[in-house]
Design a protein that fits this description.
The protein has 214 residues and is an alpha/beta fold. The chain has one domain (25-208): 3-Layer(aba) Sandwich (Rossmann fold). It has helices spanning 36-44, 66-73, 127-138, 155-163, 180-187, 197-208; strands at residues 27-32, 55-59, 80-83, 94-97, 103-106, 112-115, 142-146, 167-171, 193-195. The strands form two sheets. Strands 3-4-2-1-7-8-9 form a seven-stranded parallel beta sheet, with helices on both faces. Helix 4 runs parallel beside helix 5. The longest helix is centred in the middle third of the chain and has 12 residues, at 127-138. The termini are far apart. Mean pLDDT is 90; it is low at 1-21. Keywords: Chemotaxis, Hydrolase. InterPro entries: CheB_C (IPR035909), Sig_transdc_resp-reg_Me-estase (IPR000673). The active site is at residues 33, 60, 153. It is an enzyme of class 3 (hydrolase).
Length: 214
């Protein structure tokens, strides 16, 4: 796992934040591809054990790697991290990663559904599939973040969430390894904000401290 040694350390800042009024979410989704593992580490290890909402996560990785990725993350994080399983009910303080080669959905009652439907634009799991599930079942009480990555996966789903009143953000170009997915989301006007991961952490910690107004 040395290939994922952090290239930067996130330390939440205390500077002035944009005055953006956000509804408190009941669920959060994060999607990433190339360069995502390091960013996931730096975001998730900053979160408290008792984080107030569940998080769905989709990371494009090579076959056979998602289990070791999750096993690498957990010892470095306070928040619980696991691979999502069919039929389980999502809980606050838990990060659910999409299983290898399967789509991750969640019902309006918070029940995880795992799908072997065909890949979307070559991706299974598809970030768009997860975002679309939340758009259908949780809008506008959802936040979504689209991180570094090649291609366009997640961009349309992020736009759909924004159009339903959800808070959406993409990673900034300077900290991204590849700006395909975030750049496409911006082209579609799918993001409320463009953020360095440090500020993403700031947003999430503000939520954990029950301060939804930034």
């Amino acid at each position: 796992m040395d290939r994922y040694a952090p290239s930067f350390v996130i330390v939440p800042t205390k500077g002035a934040l944009n005055k953006v009024q956000l509804s408190s979410p009941s669920i959060i989704a994060i999607g990433a591809s190339t360069g995502g593992p390091v960013v996931f580490l730096n975001i998730l290890r900053a979160l408290p054990k008792r984080f107030p909402v569940p998080i769905l996560a989709v990371q494009h990785v090579a076959d056979g790697f998602i289990t070791s990725f999750v096993e690498w993350l957990q010892p470095n994080c306070k928040i619980r991290i696991k691979i999502a399983q069919e039929g389980e009910k999502i809980q606050a303080g838990t990060v659910y990663f999409a299983p290898e080669d399967k789509h991750l959905h969640v019902t309006a009652k918070g029940i995880i559904r795992i799908s072997t439907a065909p890949p979307i634009a070559g991706h299974r799991p598809s970030i768009d599939e997860t975002f679309n599930s939340l758009q259908k079942n949780f809008s506008p009480h959802c936040w979504a973040f689209l991180l570094t990555g090649m291609g366009k996966d997640g961009a349309k789903g992020l736009k759909a969430l924004r159009e339903e009143g959800c808070y959406t953000a993409v990673q900034d170009p300077a900290s991204s390894v590849i700006y395909g997915m975030p750049g496409e989301a911006l082209r579609l006007n799918g993001a409320v904000e463009i953020l360095h991961p440090t500020i993403m952490v700031e947003r999430l910690l503000a939520l954990a401290e029950k301060k939804p107004t930034f």
